[in-house]
Amino acid sequence: MKTNKKRILAGITPSGNSLHIGNYFGAVKPHIELQDDQDLNTHYFLADLHALTTVHDRDKLEENIVGVVLDYLALGLDPEKSVFFRQSQVPEHSQLAVVLANYVSYGQMQRMHAFKDKLQKNTDVGSINMGLFNYPILMAADILVYKPVGVPVGEDQRQHIELTRDMAENFNRAYKKEVFPLPEPMIGKKSGKIVGTDGQRKMSKSLGNTIDIFEDEAVIRKQIMSCFTDPNRKKATDPGKVEGNPVFIYHDLLNDNKEEVEDLKERYRAGTVGDVEVKEKLFAAHQRTFAVARKRRKELEQDLNQVKEILSMGAEKAAQTARETLEEVYQVIGIKNKIN
């Protein structure tokens, strides 16, 4: 890799065991596109330690970790172009988090969204686990240990990047030394919030309003056929609304046959095409778009040793940078001293 490349880093939380199209267009696709930028050195890691804040079931955690790794590799994350690894395989993340906890205040931590969201759900403050409370500190360590120039995140993560910058500034100021550059949030121009099949809320597994990528064809067909359309359209001959209609939002994202999409929109507005045909063509477009990825994922499932090797090589590359940063930090703060 060219030494003058700008390093960027993004974490992937294994909160579920299968990605849906909201995940893909909101995060996965932008990540994969960045790895083709010749000026960037892309690092992507699976944030398996972060998953512990909510997943306390061994089998479920393993299922989620394996599932998301397979999904990303199948969808095009290339270990020859990016450094891809698991957070837990690079212990410097956790070691730096212990240090950074001393450069952020309790008041700042109380203002973080994850903590405040829990309180708004009538959760007793005394029952919130410290993993969740300290989540932003570990996230800051995840980032700063690689000294990236940018972090591609959604708007909902901007606050975490700002806190990371605060910690970096506090540390640099304390030792009068620019150890940590301040990373910039790389907020995508397009919103990562893809509306769900209910037509009302963000697509989410927990809400049951998703269109999956790697599920059985019958499951995906059912998800598409149950999709919300124009509630004011009682029969196929009624003129329908295209704007804001989830089925057409998905067509614009998925369907590579743009002439077909425009034809469907025109006929829908005129009341000369039914919802069933529009959805059937959406299903066909989905299958075309993800055919290669679905085949690739099945191959990877049969060769987990290859997956382990990819993650091991990625962790080795990542650890080279992480070790250098932690060594520098320990030197600056005095942990590394005359007796070691």
Report on this model:
There is one protein chain. Helix 8 links the parallel strand 4 and strand 5. The radius of gyration is 23 Å and the shape is elongated. Helix 10 packs parallel to helix 12. The protein is mainly alpha-helical. The longest helix has 30 residues. The strands form 2 sheets. Strands 1-2-3 form a 3-stranded parallel β-sheet. The mean pLDDT is 92. It has 14 helices and 5 strands. It has 2 domains: 218 residues, HUPs (Rossmann fold); 75 residues, Tyrosyl-Transfer RNA Synthetase (Orthogonal Bundle).
Give a short synopsis of this structure.
With 340 residues, this protein is mostly helical. The chain is 51% helix and 8% strand. It folds into 2 domains: 6-193 and 304-333, HUPs (Rossmann fold), CATH 3.40.50; 215-289, Orthogonal Bundle (Tyrosyl-Transfer RNA Synthetase).
